[in-house]
């Protein structure tokens, strides 16, 4: 079946560093992708999305890159802060949303 | 802001009990979803609904049923709770004209003893 998966289950960075969380998907027909952030004890929160006709989309301190050739997307967080510590999920539409298992980002001061 | 609320944050039930999990959204969204979230398995779709009184099975509907009598409310029912249904349950909603951005509730941590 179709799948969406993250490359690393955990990522540890220092405060101020840039973080990159990677995700691969299997359905080449997926036309829409979302990144979610889930803090401990809370439901997932929307961060940023990107459609397949785009390669890059920027938000506030976050950038999503989409490489359709290798079916890969990444979430870049600039100047990572302790408040960014959370589990990050990518999800792709194909046709229903398929969620990856999540990468736990730990930010140390 | 979209608000999705779930009736309980924590729930403890016994095996065989009937369990109701309620979800309410206040943004007139057509689509509502129930997921369970387990370590190492990520989010798995149980049921979803595109309109009042409509329901569709997700990936793991066995042991669950749902009810959507009003647009703002989507209920998940465990007819006879079992220990393997111990999990975090997340409700989400979307507006049809907003792509697939799903707005999630805070989750209900259900423990079945």
Quick overview:
The complex is a heterodimer of chains A (109) and B (113). Chain A has 109 residues and is mainly beta.
Your description of this structure?
The complex is a heterodimer of chains A (109) and B (113). Chain A is mainly β. Helix content of chain A is 0%, strand content 56%. Chain A contains no helices and 11 strands. In chain A, a hairpin with a 4-residue loop joins strand 7 and strand 8. The termini of chain A are far apart. The mean pLDDT of chain A is 88. Chain B contains no helices and 11 strands. In chain B, the strands form 2 sheets. In chain B, strands 2, 4, 5, 6, 9, 10 and 11 form a 7-stranded mixed sheet that branches. Chain B has a 4-stranded antiparallel sheet with strand order 1-3-8-7, with no helix packed on it. In chain B, a hairpin with a 6-residue loop joins strand 5 and strand 6. Chain B starts with a strand and ends with a strand. The model of chain B has no long low-confidence stretch (mean pLDDT 91). Classes of the chains: A mainly beta (109), B mainly beta (113).
What is the overall silhouette of chain A?
Answer: globular
Share of residues in helices of chain B: under 10%
Largest interface: A-B, 19 and 19 residues
Approximate strand percentage of chain A:
over 45%
Estimated structural class of chain B: mainly beta
Q: What's the gyration radius of chain A in Å?
A: 13 Å
Based on CA atoms alone, the radius of gyration of chain B comes out at 13 Å
